[in-house]
Write a structure and sequence with these properties.
The structure holds two protein chains of two kinds. The two termini of chain A are 35 Å apart. Chain A has a six-stranded mixed β-sheet with strand order 3-2-7-19-20-21, with helices on one face. Chain A has a six-stranded parallel β-sheet with strand order 11-12-13-16-17-18. A four-stranded mixed β-sheet of chain A has the order 5-4-1-6, with no helix packed on it. Chain A has twelve helices and 21 strands. In chain A, 28% of the residues lie in helices and 22% in strands. The chains are: A alpha/beta, B alpha/beta.
Chain lengths: 435, 325
Amino acid sequence: MSEANAMTGSHTVIRHGRLIDPANGRDEIADLYLAAGRIVAIGNAPADFVVSQEIDAQGLWVLPGLVDLHAQLREPGEKHKASIASETRAAAAAGITTLCCGPDTQPVIDTPAIVELIHSKASNAGMTRVHPLAALTQGLAGDQLSEMHALRQAGCVAMSNGKVPMGNTLVLRRALEYAAGLDIPVMLYAEDPWLGATGCVHEGVVAARLGLPGIPSCAEVIAVGRDLMLIEQTGVRAHFCQLSSARAVELIVAAQQRGITVTADVCAHQLYLTEIDVGQFNSLCHVRPPLRSQRDRDGLRKALADGNINAICSDHQPHDADAKLAPFPTTEPGISALETLLPLTLRLVDESLLTLAQAVAAVSSQPAKILGLDAGTLSLGAMADICIVDPHKYWTVSAQTLRSRGKNTPLLGWEMKGQVSHTLLAGKIVFQQVT
Amino acid sequence: MAIDTLQQDASGKLRHFLTIEGLSRSLLSEILNLAESFLTVDEQHVKKVPLLRGKTIANLFFESSTRTRTTFELAAKRLSADVLNINIQTSATSKGESLLDMLHNLEAMHCDMFIVRHADSGAAHFIARHVAPHVSVINAGDGSHAHPTQGMLDMFTIRRHKGADFNRLRVAIIGDVMHSRVARSQIHALNILGVGELRVIAPKTLVPAAAHALGVHVYHDMARGLADVDVVIMLRLQRERMRGALIPSGSEYFQLYGLNEEMLGLAKADAIVMHPGPINRGIEMDSAVADGKQSVILEQVSNGIAVRMAVMAMCLGRAAEGESA
């Protein structure tokens, strides 16, 4: 044992914290022992455990490190907006220890070389685990299948066509069939390529008032309907990303009730904001899918509470300031969202929508399960990826408090409750709040 | 309603004129009354008042326009301001200079007011948020959002013909409401002024999905929609709309929604006919109606000068007071 100590560095104990581990039904105050990058004991120290590092978590919550199913890191291709180093540092500060980044980089993630590049930059940064989602079609162009087997061998855990809608239903069918044959999960962003093409806000009262081109809810609903038929036919492991409309969720629930295995997630901001927040052309609310009506928001919330939506993601889209400095329709869509993921999720507990276990599961064990990742739990033997939170600490979202290079969030000025105090990746402290 | 802090100052005076939405009935009446007093300037031998002497006004037209740009220019000159016309299609933004850089350069040349027309909804709001505090912005049309001076000159024209009590009036707006900034401004103005009934008549493809939220009654049948109206407002149908999948053809549109004398007969006998121009004759209306005795279309153009003078004077007048204080 002492040999192992010397080889793997520190033995850490997190003392007196409230362990919240929904995957194991655990919610109790106990000490957590970490060694060799893994969780080795809960409660009592194992024999021969020589503490080399101690974290006092009195009054704090000890959660599994968060798992975010979608965040853009902007690298390769748009380093003027952000980088793998900058955004994984922000992710660590947000308690996120595993994140998936979309294939819509420049170049697109459709070759093993790009996957290796991202893996190597992420591991050099050493802040969080990064899983690149590989392009479902080459160049995301929607006409030729990507080399899914080679991409999986390079380490991709799932395929996705990013936010580029799949217009050709035949190509989509072939892609899902091929992925099903290899048992690779596919993440689907549902948007009809024509109905949403020119829009920049939800087609509703705000679009009518401001004269902005709309994206109707049916752009999402129709795509979900079509995709569900193909999921049923091909038997692919499929997941719907970033749902925005209540009607689309109803279709998914109906499919689940018919026995089709399909999962779904929602962005945290969709659970709070609506089209009304666009106000007088607030470009920080320009986001895709668009902020929809209050009824949609309520439908998403209900589906989450009922367990029909399985995960909450950030859909982090950091931008440079210029990207939002233009007339609304010509600004770039997206919200910088890594650092508001956890507090917005915990706020659902304060609002009595979710239990604490449900909320934590939605950003840890559930998303991990969707992609079959070994993450999101505090099980004995699990990787020691841990997020320690001060649940009573208030902080205000501002350009200064956000660590992401992207300061583009309509939540600027919002007071958040719950602040990450420590983040551990494989037992190593990668973030510690300065108090 | 709370004061819109972007286009009004703390005392409710106009800083910018971006949209009619959210303004009070008394402010709209103030604009109309001031315009009334300027109408006589046109008839004087020397057509000038010295209200804005020494002020520089820049016409920034990112989209081409003849009528609106010219009437703004005339209005500014009659108030004795200096006018700068900047043709943006050939200017720096096409060389990659950002909109904001260009604005800041113009500010450095000590412009006091920007008259802005732009193809994107929200452009005037964007510019107003980023100009120096002493600069006023007047929206001369942004995308499909608003064209508030056109909306006000239409109210001015209606008031001159039908009196100040809008509650007695039934008004119909016919045509492409979906893409019309003019219609949106008219709708806000009419509702603020307390119009009795406001109708929109158009094929479903040219009405916004949530039109009810604008406070209008939607008709798809021209004859039913026109019954007993006091004011008939026709909208221009952009040529490019006829190429997409919005309507099958200009001739079918004219058959269903074109205004001819027979259709106009369904409105009240003393109904007036308006159009923001330029008219597509034979698509939106017959020449017999456009040039007929119920048409007030050319009057709208002349009224535009007085109304624009009023809005400019109110925005810059506030600035002048601020300076002396």
